[in-house]
Amino acid sequence: MKWVIAIIKPHKLNEVRSALELINVQGMTVSTVEGFGRQKGRTEVYRGAEYQYDWVPKIKLEIAVKDETLDEVIETIVSTAKTNKIGDGKIFVVNLMQAIRIRTSECGNEIL
């Protein structure tokens, strides 16, 4: 099993979610986060004054997937979230050692 962590632009969330549902991704955790990479924040003007925001709003998706579906999940996220502009985001993949459904105590791929 793998733990896929994707950081994407907020306006892409519904599109990515719909695309993942089409490939039978059963669940995910979504968080609103802030950060920066090469974008280095953003500048906004409010009442004539310019303000520099060091943090850019993003969405973090966390998805547990079976090893055999990993490539399809990654391809789906990349093709759906991509805008070809700076700040599209990143995907991180981590080995998931164990997963347990609390209600039934089922373990491993059974819970996915």
Could you describe the 3D structure shown?
Helix content is 20%, strand content 37%. By secondary structure, the chain is of the alpha+beta class. The strands form 2 sheets. Strands 2-5-1-6 form a 4-stranded antiparallel sheet, covered by helices on one side. It has a two-stranded antiparallel sheet with strand order 3-4. Strand 3 and strand 4 form a beta hairpin. The longest helix has 12 residues. The termini are close together. The model has no long low-confidence stretch (mean pLDDT 92).
Helix-strand sequence: EHEEEEHE
Could you tell me the strand content as a percent range?
35-45%
Number of DSSP E strands: 6
**Number of distinct helices:** 2
Q: Structural class per helix/strand content?
A: alpha+beta
CATH topology: Alpha-Beta Plaits
Distance between the termini: 9 Å
Question: Topology, please?
Answer:
Blueprint: E1 2-8, H1 13-22, E2 29-35, E3 42-46, E4 49-53, E5 56-65, H2 70-81, E6 89-95
Antiparallel strand pairs: 1-5, 1-6, 2-5, 3-4
Considering the chains and any ligands shown, give keywords for the structure.
37% strand, Alpha-Beta Plaits, single chain, alpha+beta, 2 helices, 112 residues, two-stranded antiparallel sheet
